[in-house]
Design goal:
Blueprint: E1 7-11, H1 18-30, E2 38-42, H2 48-54, E3 60-64, H3 81-86, E4 91-94, H4 97-103, H5 107-119, E5 123-128, H6 132-136, H7 140-151, E6 162-166, H8 180-198, E7 206-210, H9 215-222, E8 229-232, H10 239-250
Parallel strand pairs: 1-2, 1-8, 2-3, 3-4, 4-5, 5-6, 6-7, 7-8
This protein binds 1,3-dihydroxyacetonephosphate.
C-alpha cells in the first residue's frame, strides 16, 4: 500500500482563551497552504466553534479533545460526539492518557466513546501508551495489545474513521522520547495487531506518535516505519513550532 499522507495534530489541552486560540488558528491556517501533510488542531471545547470557523477556508481541520459516549442526557459538564461535530470538528481525541490516568477512563469507556464518535461521523483518534513502570517491567507491547483490543470497537473500524495515537505516558510533557528503535517496535506491533483484527484495512489506519515531539526531533520520529504523523501537545501551542513539525512531516 502507498504511504499514508501524514497527519500532524495539535492537542491544545486546557490552554487558550478565545482571542489567543483564534489568533493561533489564524497563524497556522495562513501558513498551511503549501504543506503536503494533513493538519489538525484540537482546541478546548469552549473555543472549538470559533477556531473551526477561523480555519474554515484553510487546509487545517479542527477536532475535539473528548466526547461522552451517550447521545444526550443528564451528564453535567460533558459534550456529546454530535455536539463536537456540530461545533465544527471532523476529529475527536479519545482515551488520552490524561483522561485514562487522571480521570480513570477505561478501555471499555474509550471503546464506547469511539462508537459514539463513529456514529456522529467523526474520526476518532484513539490514544494508547504504556506507563514508565510498564515499560520498565517489559510490558509495553502487551499493554498496547490490551488497550487496542479493549478500546477499538469490534466492527466498523476503518482508515476513514479511526486513527491510533501511540503516546508513551512517560514521554508526555517531559521532554523525553523513546529511542527510534522503541518507536519502531511499538508502531510495528500496533500495525500487526490491527492487521490481525482488521486484515488489509489495518494498512489504511494512520498511526501517530505523541510525546515530546518538537521541531528538533520531528523529522527523525516521523521517518520511522509505521509512523504516519504526530500528536503534539506543548509544541502545538506556538504556530512557528507546530508549522515546523508539519514541514518536517512533509520533507
Ligand atoms: P507533549 O507534546 O506536550 O509531550 O504532549 C503530547 C500529548 O499528550 C499530545 O496528546
Amino acid at each position: 500500500m502507498a504511504a499514508l499522507k501524514k497527519l500532524i495534530a495539535g492537542n491544545w489541552k486546557m490552554n487558550m482563551l478565545a482571542s489567543a486560540g483564534v489568533g493561533l488558528a489564524r497563524d497556522i491556517g495562513a501558513n498551511a497552504q503549501d504543506l503536503t501533510c494533513e493538519l489538525l488542531v484540537c482546541p478546548p471545547a469552549t473555543i472549538l466553534r470559533p477556531v473551526a470557523e477561523t480555519l474554515a477556508d484553510t487546509a487545517v481541520a479542527a477536532g475535539g479533545q473528548d466526547c461522552h459516549e451517550a447521545e444526550s442526557g443528564a451528564f453535567t459538564g460533558d459534550v456529546s460526539a454530535a455536539m463536537v461535530g456540530d461545533a465544527g470538528a471532523s476529529h475527536v481525541i479519545l482515551g488520552h492518557s490524561e483522561r485514562r490516568h487522571g480521570l480513570g477512563e477505561t478501555d471499555a469507556r474509550v471503546r464506547a466513546k469511539t462508537l459514539a464518535a463513529h456514529a456522529a461521523g467523526l474520526i476518532a483518534i484513539v490514544c494508547i501508551g504504556e506507563t514508565e513502570a510498564e515499560r520498565d517491567a517489559g510490558q509495553t507491547l502487551d499493554v498496547l495489545s490490551t488497550q487496542l483490543a479493549g478500546s477499538l470497537p469490534d466492527t466498523g473500524v476503518t482508515g476513514a474513521n479511526t486513527v491510533v495515537a501511540y503516546e508513551p505516558v512517560w514521554a508526555i510533557g517531559t521532554g523525553r522520547t523513546p529511542t527510534l528503535e522503541e518507536v519502531e517496535a511499538a508502531h510495528g506491533h500496533i500495525r500487526t495487531t490491527l492487521e490481525a483484527a482488521l486484515g488489509a484495512e489495518a494498512g489504511a489506519i494512520r498511526l501517530l506518535y505523541g510525546g515530546s515531539m518538537k521541531p528538533e526531533n520531528a523529522e527523525t520520529l516521523l521517518a520511522v516505519a509505521n509512523v504516519d504523523g504526530g500528536l503534539i501537545g506543548g509544541a502545538s501551542l506556538d504556530a512557528e513550532s507546530f508549522l515546523a513539525i508539519a514541514a518536517a512531516a512533509a520533507s
